[in-house]
Amino acid sequence: METVKVRRLDPSGVVEIVLNRPDALNAISTEHARAIAAVGAGLAADSTMRAAVVSSASDKAFCVGADLKERRSFTDNDLRRQRPVMRDAFNGLLNLPVPTIAAVNGFALGGGFELALSCDLIVVDDSAVLGLPEVTVGLVPGGGGTQLLARRIGWGRASDLVFTGRRVDAEEAYRLGIADRLVMTGQARDTALEMAEAIASNSPVGVRSAKRAMRLGLDAPLAAGLDVEDAAWRTTAFSGDRAEGIAAFNEKRRPNWPGH
């Protein structure tokens, strides 16, 4: 069974990445991590992709984190060998050049929450429960949780969740700024796909350049960040997309983006 499925919504350019270990609530085994990393690496080179949605084949969970049943028999060396594989999985989503949206239903715990945090936007439905419980079992979040959550909601709120290991429901996740959209149970995937299609209707050059500028400028001093933005502006200003966008606006029609 494919533990990660890729669905292409042509001709929009939207790609859906489906976590497909429903019997294990999408727990991340070594092989599942390899599959996520491989999908990310393949899509990173796909110039036709305009936006991506990460969803779950389970109606009970987005992902419950690392596969602890697999780890039960691990030696220290097994855990060391697995570590780069897990990092590749999270980076596979984090480094996609187009906007990514996590459609979260049910449990998103530990590495599952971190997979969502690796996306640019997070949609949760009313059934969502999120948390980073690693400190309760003698670990720290290792899929970007200590870094990405603080960047998303600030030091104090992130510290509360990381240091206590407590879980939050969908409403609190939205209030804290973890989630960008809160929808009724069962609607996270459809909402995320609608958002992705709206993004995909815009200039591919503009959207990719905007994401790159935002990511590169996030931790830079303001002056350096503005230089990153200027470089992104120059990339778009002299592109085929910009010429088509201006022409379509003046001719009162939908643009046909060349994407270069």
From TrEMBL:
Listed A to Z, the keywords are: Lipid metabolism, Lyase
* A GO molecular function held by the record: enoyl-CoA hydratase activity
**Does Coiled coil count among this protein's keywords?**
no
- For this protein, the Enzyme Commission number is 4.2.1.17
Q: Which reaction does it catalyse?
A: a 4-saturated-(3S)-3-hydroxyacyl-CoA = a (3E)-enoyl-CoA + H2O; a (3S)-3-hydroxyacyl-CoA = a (2E)-enoyl-CoA + H2O
**Is Mitochondrion there in the keyword field?**
no
Looking up InterPro entries in the UniProt record yields:
ClpP/crotonase-like_dom_sf (IPR029045), Enoyl-CoA_hyd/isom_CS (IPR018376), Enoyl-CoA_hydra/iso (IPR001753), Enoyl-CoA_hydra_C (IPR014748)
Biological process terms in GO annotation: fatty acid beta-oxidation
What PROSITE patterns does UniProt report for this protein, alphabetically? ENOYL_COA_HYDRATASE (PS00166)
Q: Which family does it belong to?
A: Belongs to the enoyl-CoA hydratase/isomerase family.
Name of the protein in question: enoyl-CoA hydratase
